[in-house]
Amino acid sequence: MKAAKSKTDAKKTDSKFSKFLEYLTFFHFHFPERREEFRKQFKEKNPNNKSVAVVGKAGGDKWKSLSDAEKAPFVAKAEKRKSEYAKNLQAYNKKQEEDDD
Q1: What is the CATH architecture assignment of 26-100?
Q2: Where do the segments described as Disordered lie (predicted)?
Q3: What is the pTM of this model?
Q4: What own/partner pairs with CB < 8 Å and gap ≥ 24 does 31-39 have?
Q5: What is the CA radius of gyration of the chain?
Q6: Which residue has the higher pLDDT, 37 or 11?
Q7: Residue ranges per structural domain of the chain
Q8: pLDDT, tens digit (0-9, with 9 covering 90-100), for 27-78
């Protein structure tokens, strides 16, 4: 039988998830929208590659090569999500404090 998770275990998990979400950047919005196109081009150039790290690095390099104008819509999405995240995190933390009392 598994032991029930304590509140501290739950808080550790929540804080790890919070840190992950905090670092979502505009690249994370760009790549999913361009995934199929990128995947096709990458496979043509690197047919024998099986490394996820190499694919990720190539995606990051492609992102870095974009102009500021090309990045602008994704930067705007990231800023919007970041503000929503901050608001949700604040509400979540307030609820956690109320539950602890």
Answers
A1: Orthogonal Bundle (1.10)
A2: 43-64
A3: 0.53
A4: 31/59, 31/63, 33/74, 38/62
A5: 19
A6: 37
A7: 26-100
A8: 666 667 777 788 888 889 999 988 888 888 888 888 889 899 988 888 888 8
